Amino acid sequence: MSFKADVVGALGEGTFNKGLGALKQVDAVHVSSARPRELVGSADVDTALAATLPNAHRWDYVVGKSAGGSVTAHWIEVHPASSTKNIAEVERKLAWLAQWLQGNPLGKYPKDVVWVASGRSTYNTRSPAVKALAAKGCRFVGGHLAL
């Protein structure tokens, strides 16, 4: 199957967008690509699952990027990074994502799980709490992600 078919299978019809089209305008300013042709497409996971999983700690987006004949799923969370409670929130979302991907067609892709600060950040990549999050599989990139 294709990345598009797997997104539709996991999230439903109408959830797949070309390029970075699924990102809300407020979040899109935090993500860019020097090679937009490599972007297979994207989906707003949070919005797609809001009705069926209203109380879940849903991840924000998935973006497929092709390189060397394969597609990597970039799981992007645009979230505040200004207090210690934000780390706990992202950890809960990361745990939800790991569980949701089990048995999911989108779980078969190589993945890159990323937290992008939505505003001013009190963290950097050397912060102990951010290092602990990285050990769990989520990297913090500050206020901008270049795909």
Short note summarizing the structure:
This protein has helices at residues 3-11, 25-28, 45-49, 84-101, 128-135, and strands at 31-32, 39-44, 61-67, 70-81, 111-121, 139-140, 145-146.
Detailed description of the structure:
This protein has one domain. It has five helices and seven strands. Strand 4, helix 4 and strand 5 form a beta-alpha-beta unit. The longest helix has 18 residues. It is globular and about 40 Å long.
Key descriptive features of the protein:
alpha/beta; five-stranded mixed beta sheet; single chain; 5 helices; 147 residues
Amino-to-carboxy terminus distance: 23 Å
> What are the low-pLDDT stretches, counting only 5+ consecutive residues below 50?
none
Percentage of residues assigned to helices: 25-40%
| Strand proportion | 25-35%
Classify the secondary structure makeup into a structural class.
Answer: alpha/beta
Gyration radius, rounded: 14 Å
Number of strands: 7
Shape descriptor reads: globular
Order of helices and strands: HHEEHEEHEHEE
Number of domains: 1
Largest sheet: 5 strands, mixed
Helices, by number, come to 5
The largest beta-sheet arranges its strands as 2-3-4-5-6
Mean pLDDT: 94
